[in-house]
Amino acid sequence: MLDLSQLETYKENNQIEAKKAIGGLPESVWETYSAFANTLGGVILLGVAEHKDKTLHPVDLPDPEWLIRDFWDIIRNPGKVSVNILTESDITVHTIHGKRIIVIRVPQAHSKDKPVYIGDNPMSGSYRRDGEGDYRCTPEEVREMLREKEASQKTLPYERTDEQ
After folding, report:
1. Taking all residues of the chain, what is their mean pLDDT, rounded to a whole number?
2. Which of 27, 67, 72, 133 has the highest CB neighbour number within 10 Å of its CB?
3. 10 Å Cβ neighbour count for 47?
4. pLDDT tens column, 67-108
């Protein structure tokens, strides 16, 4: 998907979000996680700055392993995030031009997991991705995801009978 050796050729869009994260995990990383999960998925780049011309550049994270541990601790907390849809392989550290960055690949959530939200209230903690930014879902968008979730839970897997 992304050729990290060509990072400077990319710009933030509906599936790429860059965050410096030098002082720790930015709080906005959770809005982006929710937005990507509730939309088409995407990639969060930690240790990457967006310059005035909108190009992306690595900034070198001082301790990427600590940031990753912090990320896992928070995402596994159901009081912070409704569901963790990531696996260990979705978070990787890369060295770009001698600088370490973290790549978090967020897949689109299955309808049974939507809405993916932060906090304890899907109405106020659900986000979607639009262009370069995350926006809070409208109540109708949240209700639609909840209807789809309910419908997916009612769908029974195919069962074979002896008559077949």
Report:
1. 92
2. 67
3. 25
4. 999 999 999 999 999 999 999 999 999 999 999 999 999 999
Q: Distance between CA atoms of 39 and 33, rounded to whole angstroms?
A: 10
**Phi, psi for 14 (deg, rounded to 5):** -70, -10
Sign of the CA dihedral running 87, 25, 62, 108: positive
Our CA dihedral for 125, 15, 152, 71, rounded to 10 degrees, sits at -50
The structure's pTM equals 0.90
- 97 φψ region: left (φ > 0), alpha (ψ -120 to 50), beta (else): left
Dist CA 132 CA 14 (whole Å): 5
In tens, the pLDDT along 24-40 reads 999 999 999 999 999 99
* Relative orientation angle of helices 28-38 and 64-75, to the nearest 10 degrees: 60
The tokens of 13 are what?
A: 């869009």
The domains found in the chain, sorted by start residue, are 4-152 (3.30.950.30)
